[in-house]
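We store chain and fold; thus.
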Amino acid sequence: MVISSQPHLGKGQKPFAFSAASPPAAVLFDWDNTLVDTWKTIFYAVNDTRVAFGLEPWAEDVALANIQRSGREAFPQLFGDKAKEAQIFFYKLVEEDNLQSLNPLPEAEALLQVLAEKKIPVGVVSNKSSSLLRKEVTHLKWENYFGVVVGAGDAARDKPAADPLLLALESLNVFASPSVWMVGDAPVDWDCAIAAGCQPIVMGCRFKYPSSTLVSIENCGALKKIFEKM
């Protein structure tokens, strides 16, 4: 686990300082590959969709770099005038498999339990389809852990824009500030946090990032240990 003392700051943000005596005002999580393991389902569905619409399948590293934005933003760029049709095809594939292959990441639920015990407001801000996201939360019986769940389409714009994060904070009755943590595995999560004036927290090492400028947490277990000390 690495905690940087000088994260990348948005306008008006102050340097991040972790203090066991000062818990965050709220913690917002990305969903896919931050709290749950869904990568293979998404990867195969994207490639099956590309092939069905006459495109070459992606290698995994290429897919990883391109699968971050919500469907309403990504599909027009990827499929042009067939975007709507391709998006319907893609989500049909995902829904056929997602609940059967949905697995919480190690210690993810234990982390949420600790946050609940500490009475820290918690929410989800994801670029996954809102209806599909809520089905997955319900399937895992995690509804009570989250004060708000925001998916793609719930706000005027999706991540990396600040809109969904700000919408979540409005529901939690928490003001945006560096004391709000946005935890995610991808640049869209960190950019969203910065745009909202909140603290980006890097979960894992799936993407390259400037380690000297972002706060990096290895996994859910490492983050749980931080909160246990608060």
The CA atoms of residues 89 and 125 lie 24 Å apart. Residues 1-15 have pLDDT under 50 and may be disordered. Residues 83-101 form the longest helix (19 residues).
